[in-house]
Write a structure and sequence with these properties.
Blueprint: E1 9-13, H1 18-23, H2 27-34, E2 39-45, H3 49-52, E3 60-64, H4 66-74, H5 78-94, E4 99-102, H6 107-115, E5 120-124, E6 136-138, H7 148-156, H8 170-182, E7 189-193, H9 205-218, E8 222-225, H10 232-238, E9 244-246, H11 253-262, E10 265-269, H12 272-279, E11 284-287, E12 302-305, H13 325-328, H14 332-342
Parallel strand pairs: 1-2, 1-4, 2-3, 4-5, 5-6, 7-8, 7-10, 8-9, 10-11, 11-12
Organism: Salinimonas sediminis
Protein name: Glycosyltransferase family 9 protein
Pfam families: Glyco_transf_9
């Protein structure tokens, strides 16, 4: 562990994605427990700034303009790219960080850690050998605990306190309220989060349709479907009856979190919005298949549905010829039964 120092300036690097940032959200408070008086700066990709900027444990945020750099590279504006990169490195160096915590475990994040100028660089041992750019590295634990690797990182720094949390500011809550009122969404609703970036984490569309039939017959509230702009067309296929509201792509990331916080419950696949429900203490049913499920969470009202087949978790190497039996065989009645156990 890094030696104790007076009011250290600490750089926390967890660039993406939503779910990982949610699970890492306990680190700022753990850092301050380990280093009293520390100033914490979170470095995150630009689209995710709103996830962390209101965290009371974060003193300031630096946005990594990854998408802008990629646009410059694709358009072969190499001089402009070089200037953008060097300006970014200068910005990091001007902060005079004492410690950098690399919570991503990739070459790109470890390189940024090294370029930050921090003499003490803490992070994970990785398959990419990115830990060679660090001064201290720990192995990620094999655990079914929610956010276990970040908890281990906190413990390495000397803090036994780890509690993930998300802060929703008043302005975001007000914007969400206006959307709900405009669309005449009832006070009581369940959020559905069917979408994720990887096919092997999807619960089939027909299963969602079956679940919606059950919910409309037996649940008196409304259903709200969340997702990104690219999910809107598929969401429209689910929102085919009264009482179902399609908000995929209609809300910002922060507004989506506020919506989850107001919901009676959430049903979702292994995706960031589902993990956010756990952190926000919204009752949640999380559907896992090809990925490792967490079975211990900071919320007593999170339930995990996981079939534990011999081939699971296969992660990115399915052996079922892309049938994804681990998710196809999760039935809508089972999910509805599980939801009833936690519904507010």
């Amino acid at each position: 562990m890094a030696e104790a120092m007076q009011r250290p300036h600490i750089l926390l690097i967890r660039l993406s994605a939503i779910g990982d940032i949610v699970m890492a959200s306990g680190l700022p408070s753990s850092i301050k427990a380990a280093y009293p008086g520390a100033r914490v700066c979170w470095l995150v990709e630009s689209p995710y700034v709103e996830l962390v900027k209101h965290d009371p444990g974060v003193d300031h945020v630096i946005a990594w303009p990854k998408n802008h750099w990629q646009q410059l590279h694709r358009s072969r504006q190499y001089t402009a790219l070089y200037r953008a990169v060097t300006a970014f490195v200068k910005q990091l160096r001007n902060e005079h960080f004492d410690i950098a915590i690399e919570a991503q475990g990739l070459i790109k994040s470890a390189l940024i850690t090294r370029l930050s100028g921090a003499r003490c660089r803490i992070g994970f041992v990785s398959k990419e050998h990115s830990h060679r750019l660090l001064t201290e590295a720990i192995s990620k634990p094999v655990s079914d605990d929610f956010g276990s690797e970040y908890k281990a990182l906190a413990q390495h720094m000397g803090s036994d306190y780890y509690h993930p949390h998300l802060t929703i500011d008043a302005a975001t809550s007000q914007r969400l309220y206006k959307v709900l009122r405009q669309k005449q969404i009832p006070q009581h609703f369940v959020v559905l989060c069917p979408f994720t970036t990887r096919a092997q984490k999807h619960w089939p569309l027909e299963r969602w349709q079956q679940l919606i039939v059950l919910l409309r017959a037996q649940y008196r509230g409304a259903l709200v479907i969340l997702g990104g702009p690219g999910d809107a067309a598929t969401a429209e296929q689910l929102a085919v009856a009264t009482g179902i509201y399609q908000l995929a792509g209609a809300l910002s990331l922060a507004e989506s979190l506020a919506c989850i916080a107001r919901a009676q419950a959430l049903v979702g696949v292994d995706t960031g919005m589902t993990h956010a429900a756990t952190v926000l203490s919204t009752p949640a049913v999380a559907l896992f298949g090809s990925t490792c499920p967490y079975l211990r969470t900071p919320s007593s009202t999170t339930r995990v549905v996981y079939l534990d087949l011999p081939c699971a978790p296969c992660k990115r190497r399915p052996t079922c010829q892309a049938r994804y039996d681990c998710l196809v065989n999760i039935t809508a009645p089972r999910v509805w039964h599980t939801l009833q156990q936690v519904l507010k």
